[in-house]
Design a protein that fits this description.
- It contains three helices and no strands.
- It has helices at about 5-20, 25-45, 50-80.
Length: about 80
């Protein structure tokens, strides 16, 4: 799930920007927003937006794995302690 979160988030924003381009007067806002979003993703992908979104997905996935490991460790260490 943590890999899919940034992909779904950025995909939803780009989809929303594509939808508002059909509203009269919002074409410029949509084009500008899409261009900013693709430029932001290109920073993380060595100039390629698709590679950038995959890089962000992998990074967030690794962070999620590390947090799961921390949670498991904390659960095990708190379960084994005697609080009396």
């Amino acid at each position: 799930m943590s890999f899919a979160l940034p992909i779904v988030l950025f995909g939803s924003v780009l989809g929303f920007l594509a939808l508002i381009s059909y509203i009269p007067g919002f074409l410029t806002v949509s084009n500008q927003g899409s261009q900013y979003m693709l430029n932001f993703l290109a920073v993380f992908g060595d100039g390629k937006p698709l590679q950038g979104i995959i890089t962000l997905g992998i990074t967030v996935s690794i962070a999620g794995i590390l947090l799961d490991i921390l949670n498991f460790y904390r659960y095990q260490s708190l379960r084994d302690e005697d609080f009396s």
